[in-house]
Design goal:
Layout lengths: L7 E5 L5 H12 L8 H8 L2 H10 L2 E6 L2 E11 L2 E9 L8 H15 L4 E6 L4 H9 L3 E3 L5 E2 L2 E2 L1 E6 L1
Parallel strand pairs: 4-5
Antiparallel strand pairs: 1-2, 2-3, 3-4, 5-9, 6-9, 7-8
Helix pairs in contact: 1-3
């Protein structure tokens, strides 16, 4: 159990964090597994090697609480936008503001790198995440992708 008063800190992830990130993604999305197609779930939770490959494409961050990785987010440049992917918060760390702290960190990075937009895609059943994105200023767009290996998606963006 996490302590209520312990601070959450955000840092850039290292390649050595990849296996913990993979475990976190699996833990965070397992409760939604039945709503994904098997192929989409496998694409969402990622393997250690895939995470290490993605680290070469763009930055990852991790949230640390009580010396444990409890959240993660990654991003990749897509022209003038920074596309957010692989965001997850451990079920035991939900309600501590971890997702918001990760989004703040990524937004600061995007502004420093002079991106004009933050974009993301999500599934309609991740309602808590969608509320977080909307509270952070993201709005739904008509842009794709609209499906991930048989699982519906929609896109959101935030102008910086």
């Amino acid at each position: 159990m996490l302590q209520q008063d312990s601070a959450v800190r955000i840092r850039r992830a290292a390649a050595s964090d990849a296996s913990q990130i993979a475990s976190l993604l699996f833990e965070a999305f397992s409760e939604f597994r039945s709503q994904y197609t098997p192929e989409a779930f496998a694409t969402t939770v990622l393997y250690t090697e895939t995470i290490q490959d993605r680290m070469k494409e763009g930055p990852f961050w991790v949230a640390i609480k009580n010396d444990k990785i409890v959240g993660t987010i990654s991003a990749v440049a897509k022209k003038r936008a920074l596309y957010l992917r692989s965001m997850a918060v451990s079920p035991e760390a939900r309600g501590y503001g971890v997702g918001k702290l990760l989004l703040i960190e990524v937004e600061n990075f995007a502004k420093n790198e002079r991106f004009r937009y933050l974009t993301l895609s999500t599934t309609p059943f991740l309602t808590t995440a969608i509320r977080l994105y909307e509270s952070f200023g993201f709005q739904r767009t008509e842009e794709g992708p609209h499906v991930l290996k048989g699982t519906p998606l929609f896109s959101m963006e935030k102008k910086l």
